[in-house]
Specification:
Elements (H helix, E strand, L loop, with lengths): L3 E7 L3 E8 L4 E8 L2 E3 L5 E3 L1 H17 L4 H4 E8 L5 E3 L9 E2 L7 H10 L2 H8 L8 H11 L1 H6 L2 E3 L1 H10 L4 E2 H6 L12 H6 L12 E2 L4 E4 L2 H7 L6 E3 L4 H8 L7 E6 L3 E8 L11 E5 L4 E8 L4 H10 L6 H10 L8 E3 L11 E3 L7 H24 L9 E6 L5 H11 L3 E4 L4 H13 L6 H8 L2 E5 L6 H19 L4
Parallel strand pairs: 1-6, 10-11, 14-20, 20-21
Antiparallel strand pairs: 1-2, 2-3, 4-5, 5-8, 7-9, 12-13, 14-15, 15-17, 16-17, 18-19, 21-22
Length: about 500
């Protein structure tokens, strides 16, 4: 009986492998740490083979908990960080280390294209901004900086597509990764050949894998991968989605009623719109074909979210305060009193850098923690307001919150108070993996389509209503946050 799905979620620091049933309940979970190298010059890379070996070991471990599990897996779904890229030859061997999406090596190219006036035309093809970690920009950089490596490369793959190729030996992609990485012509739905030519790399079109739908089968587990992992050879592997889209799906967001906020390393904010909607000139950070091409998913964000708290607890406080203690300090601190501000850019790209501002003698650990929680929520609100400018009608009715901040009740309440919208936290802690599992459940025949799979597998666990008494205070504090941010940006380099 094939009644389970396996979900693989490859993030910035770890790979999570989950076994789930058709109702979305997790029956097994294993994690494997992966090494990501942060170079001083802004390059962020990952050894591809070590990445696969860690993933394979986690798959083996979760299946080994019950000898019958492998035979019950109807399909596999993979998700992983979007943008960046993995580069392989025809046999699937890496031709260079993988590039992670927080890599900033291509930012000078973006700056030059903007200064020369070429960015507008390229963005018009992809329907989104150019930015330094975007796959399109990374490829343009590598085409000039590493032509010999690119000549050896047969396929340019996203993170999750690299894992699928290791599982199946088949190179393919899905529309969320392709469109969300700037590689799609949004008018035609095919690869952005016009943008490739404008960036002097027309040959890249031949290294782009064929696309399949999110819920379609993208390949079958090979005999070699089966021997290594314990999976059954021939098990289908779904097209699936990049992590941002998978989180939106796993959060149960179908339609325009919800604004999804993913608070992890990046402050990612997502909103569904009708396919083909006019966006005007203020293009979003990412613009994806979503849910088997049924709609578009717009995303705004920056590397400015919950990871800032991890930095402060580990590096700033030296581990002397636990996450539970930090939550308690914030929960018991008065809201409407004066305190410092925090700009949440510890992992950001220049010129934005993390900063505490307005520190006075009355500030202490509790107020600085409170400022971090608020600064992250302020940045999410800023991006949400940018997204809602694209809406023609009524806006979303609630926020679906995922990521590290969603695990903290006090933080979820701060999001509700700052955004003055109800916040709903998903029952599933691993929302991205659940999104991949939903795709696999359709590919494996457990549910007929993505909409019905979401209804069966995704549920809300907790709800937080905004405190109206804090609305004016947080509106004023949000304006202060924005002024401080713009003031720092205006300082000479």
């Amino acid at each position: 009986m094939r009644d389970l799905v396996l979900a693989i979620d490859a993030g910035g620091t770890a790979v999570k492998v989950l076994l789930l049933d058709a109702a979305g309940q997790t029956l097994g979970l294993r994690m494997a740490a992966v090494v990501t190298t942060h170079h001083p010059d802004g390059r962020v890379e990952r050894d591809a083979e070590a990445f696969w070996q860690a993933t394979a070991a986690a798959i083996t471990a979760v299946l080994a908990e019950d000898p019958a599990r492998a035979g019950r897996v109807a399909a596999i779904g993979c998700t992983g960080f979007g943008n960046g890229g993995f580069f392989v030859d025809a046999s699937g061997r890496a031709t260079r280390p993988g590039i992670v999406s927080v890599d900033h090596r291509a930012q000078p190219l973006v700056t030059r294209l903007q200064a020369e006036g070429h960015a507008v035309g390229i963005s018009a093809v992809s329907g989104q901004k150019l930015w330094g970690g975007q796959t399109l920009m990374q490829l343009a950089h590598l085409a000039a900086a590493e032509p010999e490596v690119m000549a050896q490369t047969s396929w340019v793959l996203s993170c999750k597509d690299y894992i699928r190729m290791c599982l199946t030996g088949t190179a393919c992609a899905d529309a969320t990764d392709v469109s969300g990485s700037g590689l799609m012509d949004m008018d035609s739905g095919g690869y952005a050949a016009q943008a490739f030519a404008a960036l002097n790399m027309p040959e890249i079109a031949g290294k782009m894998p064929p696309m399949v739908e999110n819920s379609a089968v993208g390949g079958m587990v090979s005999a070699a991968a089966a021997a290594q992992t314990g999976l059954r050879a021939g098990t289908p592997v779904a097209g699936s989605m990049m992590d941002v889209a998978a989180c939106a799906l796993g959060a149960g967001s179908v339609g325009t009623d919800h604004l999804v906020m993913i608070a992890g390393t990046w402050a990612i904010n997502c909103l569904e719109i009708a396919r083909g909607s006019a966006l005007g000139t203020a293009l979003p950070l990412m613009n994806m074909l979503h849910r088997d091409g049924q709609c578009q998913l717009l995303c705004e964000g920056s590397p400015s979210s919950a990871a800032n708290l991890g930095w402060y607890l580990t590096r700033g406080l030296g581990g002397r305060v636990s996450l539970a203690e930090a939550n308690e300090m914030v929960a018991t601190s008065p809201v409407q009193t004066r305190r410092c501000h925090f700009l949440p850019y510890v992992y950001g790209a220049a010129p934005r850098m993390g900063s505490f501002l307005g520190l006075v003698a009355s500030d202490d650990t509790a107020t600085m923690l409170q400022a971090i929680y608020e600064g992250v929520a302020f940045q999410h609100r800023r991006h949400a307001e940018e997204l809602m400018a694209h809406l023609a009608g009524t806006g979303p009715k609630a926020i679906r919150l995922a990521g590290g901040a969603a695990r903290s009740g006090p933080w979820a309440q701060i999001f509700a108070d700052i955004c003055q919208m109800p916040v709903e936290v998903c029952e599933a802690e691993e929302v991205g993996a659940l999104g991949a599992a939903i795709c696999a459940a359709v590919a494996g025949g457990l549910h007929p389509d993505l909409t019905q799979a979401v209804a069966a597998m995704a549920r809300v666990g907790r709800r937080y209503a905004p405190n109206l008494a804090h609305a004016r205070f947080y509106d004023e504090r949000f304006q202060e946050f924005q002024k401080l941010d713009q003031g720092l940006l205006a300082l000479p380099a």
